[in-house]
Specification:
By secondary structure, this protein is α/β, with parallel strands linked by helices. It is 49% helix and 16% strand. It has one domain: Rossmann fold. The chain is globular. Bound molecules: cytidine-5'-monophosphate.
C-alpha cells in the first residue's frame, strides 16, 4: 500500500496518544508524538533556568536544544542533547509550563520544521498526533482526525493515568491548558475544515482505534 500521512489532533485526555500509537502499530506506520517535542523543549528551558514568563528569552534560545524523536510506535523515544527525557517530560512541572513555551512563535516555527522533516522522511507513512497537525504542520495529510470527549471523560482518563491525583484538580488543570492551547495566536488547537471529528466520550479505546483504522484503510 502507498505511504499514508495521518494527522490526529484534539485536546488532552481524548485518547490521542493511545489511539495514534495503536493505529500506527496495526498498520505498520511510523508514529510521532508532537506534544512530547513541546514538552522536551520546555524541559530544556526549565533545566537551563529560562524564565517561562519571558517570551523573548524563550525565543532567543529556541534553536539551541537538539531534539530527536524515534518514530517506532511500539517504543517511541525522545532525547534532548542526547539525554533520554521520556520520563522527565511527564512531570507536573513540565505539564504546567508547556502551554506557555509552545505559544512562543519562534518555538513553533522551529518544532514545526522538525515535524515536517520527520514526516517527509518517514518511509511507508506516519501517524502524527498533536494540536495543529491538520491545520498547520501537515495541511496536505491524507487523513485528518479530530478527537473530542466531554471534560468529565477527559479528566477521568487523565486521573486514571496519574494514580492518586484528585479528579477535580486534574479537570481544572486540563481545562486551563486546553484554553491556553486554543486561545494562543500562533496555530492554536483547532479542527481543520476537512477533519473527521470523532467524539470518544461513549467509546472504548478499542472502538476508537477500529474507527480510525477503518478511515485510514479507506484512504489507502
Ligand atoms: O499532547 P500533550 O499533552 O503531550 O501536549 C503537551 C502540550 O504541547 C500541549 O498542551 C500544547 O501546549 C503543546 N502542543 C502544541 N502543539 C502540538 C502538540 C502539543 O502546542 N502539535
Amino acid at each position: 500500500p502507498a505511504a499514508v500521512i495521518v494527522a490526529i489532533d484534539g485536546p488532552s485526555g481524548t485518547g490521542k496518544s493511545s489511539t495514534s500509537k495503536a493505529v500506527a502499530a496495526q498498520l505498520g506506520l511510523n508514529y510521532l508524538d508532537t506534544g512530547a517535542q513541546y514538552r522536551a523543549i520546555t524541559w530544556w528551558m526549565v533545566n537551563n533556568g529560562i524564565d517561562i514568563a519571558d517570551a523573548a528569552a524563550i525565543a532567543a534560545v529556541a534553536e539551541k536544544p537538539e531534539i530527536i524523536s524515534g518514530t517506532d510506535p511500539s517504543g517511541p523515544t525522545i532525547t534532548v542533547d542526547g539525554t533520554d527525557v521520556a520520563g522527565p517530560i511527564r512531570t507536573q512541572e513540565v505539564t504546567s509550563k508547556v502551554s506557555a513555551v509552545s505559544a512562543v512563535p519562534e518555538v513553533r516555527t522551529r518544532i514545526t520544521e522538525l515535524q515536517r522533516s520527520i514526516a517527509r522522511g518517514a518511509a511507508g507513512g506516519i501517524v502524527v498526533e498533536g494540536r495543529d497537525i491538520g491545520t498547520t504542520v501537515l495541511p496536505d495529510a491524507d487523513l485528518k482526525i479530530f478527537l473530542t470527549a466531554s471534560p468529565e471523560a477527559r479528566a477521568a482518563r487523565r486521573s486514571g493515568e496519574l494514580k492518586g491525583t484528585d479528579v477535580n484538580a486534574t479537570r481544572e488543570a486540563l481545562i486551563k491548558r486546553d484554553a491556553a492551547d486554543s486561545g494562543r495566536k500562533t496555530s492554536p488547537l483547532a479542527k481543520a475544515g476537512d477533519a473527521v471529528e470523532v467524539d470518544t466520550t461513549e467509546l472504548t479505546l478499542q472502538q476508537v482505534i477500529e474507527c480510525v483504522v477503518t478511515l485510514v484503510e479507506e484512504k489507502r
